[in-house]
Predict the structure.
Amino acid sequence: MQAANTNYPHKIRSESEYNETYQRSVTDPRGFWAEIADHFHWHRKWDSVLDFNFDEPKIEWFKGAKLNITENCIDRWAKSHPDKVALLWEPNDPSESHRKITYAQLLQEVSNWAKVLKSRGIGKGDRVCLYMPMIPELAFAVLACARIGAIHSVIFGGFSPASIADRVKDASAKAIITADSVMRGAKKIALKDIIDSSLEDCTVEAVIVFNRNKDTVEMKEGRDFWYSELVERLDLTAIEPAEVMDSEDPLFILYTSGSTGKPKGVVHTCGGYMVYTNYSFLNVFQYEFDDVYFCTADIGWITGHSYILYGPLSAGATTLMFEGIPNYPSPSRFWEITDKFKVNQLYTAPTAIRSLMSCGLDQFKGTDLSSLKVLGTVGEPINKEAWEWYFKYVGKEQCPIVDTWWQTETGGILISNLAGITKHKSTYATKPLPGIRPALMNDKGHRHPLSQANLSKANTQKLQGNLVVEFPWPGMIRTVWGDHERCKQTYFSAYPGNYFTGDGCFKDTDQDYRITGRVDDVLNVSGHRIGTAEVENAINACENVIESAVIGYPHPIKGEGIYAYIICQGEVTQSAVNDKIKDIIGPIAKCDKVQLVSGLPKTRSGKIMRRILRKIASGEKSWGDASTLLNPEVVDEIWKNRVV
Ligand code: WTA
């Protein structure tokens, strides 16, 4: 096995090194990535570094190479540093004990889980959905899937039975891994009951249940199994060997909302994803081998996959997993955890920062935070006030903030400063990582002539446009599960030859990128991506609703709030609407404001004029000329009755 190197030879250590590395990565991308990939453990090396064609799209990295990502994330560290802590775990309830899992223990646990999965007939290529609390067993189970070559699909704990059923069916999952329940703050969520309701509508061969809270739950004979009972029957002495995977075999599916219809199953593959999450983790956070790293995300989202699990573990890091929420039992929780474990890198979301900001400065009383070296943010544009508060009160003006822009589809961070190496700038994600070639498309659908990511060519004007990426990187989406055409349509047709991000962006004269938010009908509510079409479908399923339009508006804590305009016959209440949304999608998509209207502004071709509704929802009266609408009179009525 390739020895693990704790000096991280591919970590960039100065701004000039960043500039040189960037130039090299765009002039010789294949040579650049091959050199990085060389530092992993492969059973067989690749025949070619990269084959691609963005029209189909076909994207193949390290084709012909054989590996298992868990050997890189676990075995090689368990061999060289068996007693190093891989996973730190802090429970929801601070009076419960925390846990420390070393690399040697992680290997054993993942092996046990792998054996349990195999004992239920699960193997390479099978899909397994996970609906679990943020406990170490979730990490074990995810990694166990990867170890045996099963494709994991983690479902966020806030989704409803109907959303779970959609995902389980779309992935044709063979098994589900869940737990009895989870405490989120003071609230209990009965995970197993939710799974039972979701399975009324679809079938799986096995439900494996981990007993987190010692609840009594109903177990369906022949379908449901306690993990503890399955594992008891097995001989656990020998470590379960890792399945040898092709570099382009799928590693996982993660569902994410788009602008139309149902969520898409974004597919990531083994080799490229491993190389990219490792490289971006080390460089953005400037992780050093003895650091303690804490990402507050949930593993149900891509941030948890890439930057709680795969990125850090592939670097032999100590990564902290937190079961609870930022303000339980008090808004000091993140700071107490930081002090307790001497956290060096803290990675969180603007929505968490804003919600803590609103709790006053007493939360810092009695906390020290002097272990912190780097702060990170992800998920949505961070506003100046939140950035400054984070910098001043959390980082004590000593810590660089990495504003990391990326997406479920990109697998890892694409645009960000590198902590302490390249400059941070409030509200700017700043510069592309090596290997990433962003460009801006103007409103005529053409690439801004000055937008290429050539750092030596200074721009003298600000550029604004839609953000695309011109060249593949190893961590990018390969397909949408079961619907390659949708992958092509969504990401590769708007600007042929480019990957389209769905985000708007501008670039200033320092060549720094600032992401301005989605340009499609996707909302970003507390860092969660929610498609307006999904919410509208849920609202339209309410009794008495005829039609609806859902719009995002600026919200002081959530970033975006959800505003629904509804045409109905008879009565419809906000709570009825939100109950329906909770049933169909989950509580994360609940509407903040509901307005009943007699009509929706439409173009002569029948399209809803969302631009006008967006203005009204934001309290702006400047929507311009409405006279070309089919029903201009409705606009004044909507404005008059708007919900403030
Ligand atoms: C937004 C989360 C501004 C963006 C990793 C993107 C951001 C969407 C940032 C992806 C950032 C993420 N600054 N906007 N630093 N990071 N976004 O798939 O609109 O849950 O398209 O991935 O979040 O959300 P997703």
